[in-house]
Amino acid sequence: MAQKPSIPKGTRDFNPEQVAKRNYIFSTIKAQFETFGFQPIETPSFENSETLMGKYGEEGDRLIFKILNSGDYLSKVETKSYLDKNTLKITPQISEKALRYDLTVPFARYVVQHQNDIEFPFKRYQMQPVWRADRPQKGRFREFYQCDADVVGSDSLWQEVEFVQLYDNVFSALGLKGTTIKINNRKILSGIAEVIGASDKLIDFTVALDKLDKIGEEKVKEEMLGKGIPQNGIDQLQPLFSLSGNFESQIESLNAILSTSEEGKKGIEELDFINKAIQALGLTSAKLQLDVTLARGLNYYTGAIFEVSAPEGVAMGSIGGGGRYDDLTGIFGLPNVSGVGISFGLDRIYLVLEELGLFRNHN
Question: Any idea what the Cα angle at residue 52 is, between residues 297 and 54, rounded to 5°?
Answer without folding.
Answer: 55
